[in-house]
Amino acid sequence: MFNLIRNVASYATQENYQVVVDAYSRVAQAVTSSPFKVEKISASKLNSLAKCDESMLFSLYSERCSRPTFFVIYVPRSLLIFRSSDKSDADTIRLALSSLTRLINALEKGPEKAFIPNIERLRISVEKEQSFKDIHHASACNFGDAIARMCSTGDAQAIINEASLDGRFPLQIAADNDNEEALRVLVHFGADVSKQDSKLRNVLHYAAQKSPELLKLLKSSPKFATAMDQIDENGMSPLCLAIEASQIKCVKLLLDSGCSVGPFPAGPLAFILTLAHSADALPTLVDTIAEKSPHFLFERINGTSTILHEKLDRVLLYHILEGVARNLDVNVRDGLHQTPLHCAVKRGDLPQAIALLSFRADPNAMDQNGDTALHIAAQQGSLPIVKLLLCFNSSATAKNRRGFTAADIAKQSSTPHKKEIMECIQLMATPPHHPTPAPEHVISDLMQGRALSRISAMPSEQRDQIINCLSLDGGGIKGLVLIQILLHIENELGYPIMEHFKWLAGTSTGAIIALALARGDSLRTCQSLYLRLKDEIFVGKRPYSESTIEHFLQKHFGTEPTMANLNRRKVMVTATCIRTTVPELKLYRSYRLPLNIVQNEALGYSDPEDCVIWRCARYSSAAPTFFPPKDGIVDGGLIANNPTLDLLNDIHTYNAACQYSGHKEADIGCILSVGTGQSPATDVNCSTFSLTAPTSINEGISMIRDIINLKNILIEQITSSDGECVKRARSWAHDQKIAFFRLSPPLSRHVELDEMQNETIVDLLWDTEKYLRTTAHGQVQSLLAYLKAL
């Protein structure tokens, strides 16, 4: 616009130029002046308008033109209240305002500076509720002083008990608008807090949805105790509405005041909780209610189902199952003999199905028709849920009451993923595949056989002294692969796998799992921990919150326990010190060498008492770009993403120290090295990797592409967990006649360290399970035979 004016000025006379500027000013004023702003109108402007009525309070004026704008003017003060191109709209506002003489008079007696803001608020209230009377608008606008003046000069009881056309009283209107001052004045003049409106709601029903300050104000009323347990037309008490509105402080205040905890006509508190608007507030709401009603989560909804059968936010579900209601049966039945897992699968609720299974929901439980969750998933054609259930040992051969397996049901369906679902079920229903030994494994198989023969030839008392070692790679959320592999082996064994492993090593995500297993956590506990980890820690953008991951680790491991407390097993985790230009591998151990303190310190074996567990986990998992460094230390994956070689080195050093000091050496039977999966290889489109100065745009683009590819190759090589490092570890172990098992599945897609998508997580687990039943089946059977023979 200003450029246009300057262009006009280049050829216009000064007079014409001024005309243009004035026109622009008027347009700008019209644009910036709000049509809803109350403002003083000049006498000249008022005289230019045509008066449309005889009113001397609120009057209608219009412009003198063919398409006029209509104005509502407050005549005593010449205030422009409202404007509209629709005469009917303007006149409706004028009439509504003109009927509020008592309120206008009360506002006129207030502070001079407050009148215009107050009249503007009143105008807004009139636009919303044109049927309101003086007291209702005063309550809606929080005009406490005006209410006091009206009650002091009239029949106070009649005024404060006047119902609006929608059936509400001034008290309810004030609370509904969170107007503390108006509420205070109304209560002062005797408003009854137990008086119910047309929806059977008293003022507490409205206040409980707004703020605890309103409830505190009302608590002094003699009828507060009666009001807080009254039920509205929907069967809800004030407590129910406070829960629904996620008003935690209001819930606490009502509970502390002794309100009823139900059950209510609308349902028990467990059901009311599912109505809460804010998912973030749910865990705190649960804790607050549980303080006064510890068993509320165990209440039956509609006499049959429980809160676990309802659709729940996954954070709340984890909070319930691991905290306030850890004794709640995750396989509890409803009226149709369905478990919560059945209901989650019927809803197609993958996140809730994952959560329930991680807390040991039975995937083979049958409903009244004999259907398992797998039957339902196959019928609905939910491929991710079918894969998930199969990964959690859902029977692929179970038949329902009609004699149908899940595969039979899938075959009869017409869902888009019918073929894939049948293939998945068939894989689990048939005996595992025994692959033909690969030619390149001839030598390693020979050496593996010799190592196993050495152990099988031992007397039983000597075999009892054997120590088996477990090495866990890094890989972020792919730590779920580590857990899935160990769970598969454990299921085949029929008892906890950790009974066989007394020396553990881990990097990054593997470090967290190793520390958890070393302190006695079950694999299912670790699995639940990791499924929560992705939802709680990978929030927002990278790098993720330092305080969040530290709180998460402190919550699980505690703030005080040290590595010295992990005395049932030897455990070692890796980290990388980046305080110098040459990164240094740091090892945090639960043990020291059988040497004196000076010798241990010289060899880098720090006192386990000085190593707090959560800090060790934090150091090892501080992946660059994902989490900030901690005390100059980052993820051990930069140097030892596969810690097997470092474990072998530590074993060698430990046994050498034992020889030196005359102690008994550790006799290692096997090393189980578990990886987080191998991403599919991708082609690198670069020809030269030349970093010489480009001579053309195309060469420049090619060089940038080469640099990016070179960077990716270097990162892959630095953090490599497979390939040559596994060959070296296997050779070293076999040279010592130690059996070596390496399990790391090929993945169907690249999975990020901070992967959040549940479908991708399920595919990750499925790739693992498929690998264990095909390519790795022979190795798994060999490991099982070895362990069972011990």
Automatic annotation (TrEMBL):
<feature type="active site" description="Nucleophile">
    <location>
        <position position="508"/>
    </location>
</feature>
<feature type="short sequence motif" description="GXGXXG">
    <location>
        <begin position="474"/>
        <end position="479"/>
    </location>
</feature>
<keyword id="KW-0443">Lipid metabolism</keyword>
<feature type="repeat" description="ANK">
    <location>
        <begin position="166"/>
        <end position="198"/>
    </location>
</feature>
<feature type="repeat" description="ANK">
    <location>
        <begin position="234"/>
        <end position="261"/>
    </location>
</feature>
<dbReference type="GO" id="GO:0005739">
    <property type="term" value="C:mitochondrion"/>
</dbReference>
<feature type="short sequence motif" description="DGA/G">
    <location>
        <begin position="635"/>
        <end position="637"/>
    </location>
</feature>
<dbReference type="GO" id="GO:0047499">
    <property type="term" value="F:calcium-independent phospholipase A2 activity"/>
</dbReference>
<feature type="active site" description="Proton acceptor">
    <location>
        <position position="635"/>
    </location>
</feature>
<dbReference type="InterPro" id="IPR002110">
    <property type="entry name" value="Ankyrin_rpt"/>
</dbReference>
<keyword id="KW-0378">Hydrolase</keyword>
<dbReference type="GO" id="GO:2000304">
    <property type="term" value="P:positive regulation of ceramide biosynthetic process"/>
</dbReference>
<keyword id="KW-0442">Lipid degradation</keyword>
<protein>
    <recommendedName>
        <fullName>phospholipase A2</fullName>
        <ecNumber>3.1.1.4</ecNumber>
    </recommendedName>
</protein>
<dbReference type="InterPro" id="IPR016035">
    <property type="entry name" value="Acyl_Trfase/lysoPLipase"/>
</dbReference>
<keyword id="KW-0040">ANK repeat</keyword>
<feature type="repeat" description="ANK">
    <location>
        <begin position="336"/>
        <end position="368"/>
    </location>
</feature>
<feature type="short sequence motif" description="GXSXG">
    <location>
        <begin position="506"/>
        <end position="510"/>
    </location>
</feature>
<feature type="repeat" description="ANK">
    <location>
        <begin position="369"/>
        <end position="401"/>
    </location>
</feature>
<dbReference type="Pfam" id="PF12796">
    <property type="entry name" value="Ank_2"/>
</dbReference>
<dbReference type="InterPro" id="IPR047148">
    <property type="entry name" value="PLPL9"/>
</dbReference>
<feature type="domain" description="PNPLA">
    <location>
        <begin position="470"/>
        <end position="648"/>
    </location>
</feature>
<dbReference type="GO" id="GO:0016042">
    <property type="term" value="P:lipid catabolic process"/>
</dbReference>
<dbReference type="GO" id="GO:0052816">
    <property type="term" value="F:long-chain fatty acyl-CoA hydrolase activity"/>
</dbReference>
<keyword id="KW-0677">Repeat</keyword>
<dbReference type="InterPro" id="IPR036770">
    <property type="entry name" value="Ankyrin_rpt-contain_sf"/>
</dbReference>
<dbReference type="Pfam" id="PF01734">
    <property type="entry name" value="Patatin"/>
</dbReference>
<dbReference type="InterPro" id="IPR002641">
    <property type="entry name" value="PNPLA_dom"/>
</dbReference>
